[in-house]
Design brief:
The chain is of the alpha+beta class and 119 residues long. A six-stranded mixed beta sheet has the order 3-1-2-6-4-5, with helices on one face. Strand 1 and strand 2 form a beta hairpin. The protein is globular and about 40 Å long. The relative contact order is 0.25.
C-alpha cells in the first residue's frame, strides 16, 4: 500500500549522504513539514541536498533526531527521476550502489532507519 512520505537527503559528514523517510498523513501535511524542516536544516548550516514528498510502499522505522553517525548502518539507493517523485531501495549486505547525475539521479545513502518487516 502506498503512503505519502517526506524524503530528505543531507550530507552526513565527509562525502556520505544521509537519507530520512518520514510518513505523513497527506500530501498537504508532507509539504508543510518539508517547508519547516528545510528551513531548520538550512538555518543550521546543513541545507538538504533534496527534500520532496512522494508516495512509497517502503516503511522505515521512525526517524530519531540525534542518531549518531555510527548508528547509520542501513544503506539505501535513492532514485530521483526528472519526472518527479522518488524511489528508495534498501541495499543488501555486499550490494553496491553507484551514484549518478543522469536521469534518474541516484544517491547512495545511509540511515539509522531500518525497514519495517511487517510493512
Amino acid at each position: 500500500m502506498l503512503k505519502t512520505a517526506l524524503l530528505i537527503l543531507t550530507m552526513a559528514g565527509g562525502d556520505a549522504t544521509r537519507v530520512t523517510l518520514t510518513e505523513t498523513e497527506s500530501l498537504t501535511d508532507c509539504e508543510a513539514t518539508l517547508d519547516v524542516l528545510a528551513q531548520i536544516l538550512t538555518e543550521a548550516g546543513t541545507p538538504p541536498i533534496a527534500a520532496l514528498c512522494g508516495e512509497t510502499a517502503l516503511q522505515l522505522t521512525p526517524f530519531v533526531h540525534g542518531t549518531p553517525a555510527e548508528a547509520e548502518i542501513h544503506r539505501y539507493r535513492v532514485e530521483l527521476p526528472s519526472a518527479g517523485g522518488y524511489q528508495i531501495v534498501p541495499l543488501a549486505k555486499g550490494e553496491t550502489c553507484t551514484p549518478t547525475a543522469a536521469d534518474p539521479v541516484i544517491y547512495c545513502a545511509r540511515s539509522g532507519q531500518s525497514v519495517l518487516t511487517d510493512g
